[in-house]
């Protein structure tokens, strides 16, 4: 308490306030219950999501405003991966849908290797962000398998079913990509 009081008296409050906004809650994993960072279960996915951090960051002189998603993941497929698309969703403090986006990485990922990516989302009411959600949407392998499959896609019916546990009235149309007019 004394350190904060001294910081306020010395005019150092602003850096402390920014620091509080930058540090998100601890990452979640399939084994932990973290209502703020949710990783959907996908046992058949070629990529395992290890952790998710999502938080709103107010913009400033050197900071871009928005909802930030940091995803740690691992290639569990046994095949080299050329590209991954993550489904990233934001819900507000009342568990109402804010927005979604596809976070894409095109860095090659060898079997058994781990990596991390960060994406920024802008939404109309992004300051109300409360819960972040992630799932593996698509994976492009470097080479086709024995059946000629080069692109893996998530079972979207299962994804929608899991999302409805957060927001009952969630609709698949909310995940459709927005096209500029």
Explain this structure to me?
The protein has helices at residues 2-9, 13-22, 156-163; strands spanning 37-39, 47-57, 66-75, 81-92, 97-105, 114-121, 129-141, 151-153. It is mainly beta and 181 residues long. Strands 1, 4, 5, 7 and 8 form a five-stranded mixed beta sheet that branches. A three-stranded antiparallel beta sheet has the order 2-3-6, with no helix packed on it. Strand 2 and strand 3 (66-75) form a beta hairpin. The protein has one domain (23-175): Immunoglobulin-like (Sandwich). The protein contains three helices and eight strands, in the order H-H-E-E-E-E-E-E-E-E-H.
Q: What is the CATH architecture term? A: Sandwich
Low confidence ranges: 1-32
Largest sheet: 5 strands, mixed
Span from first to last CA?
Answer: 53 Å
Summarize the structure.
The protein has 181 residues and is mainly beta. The protein has a single domain, classed as Immunoglobulin-like (Sandwich).
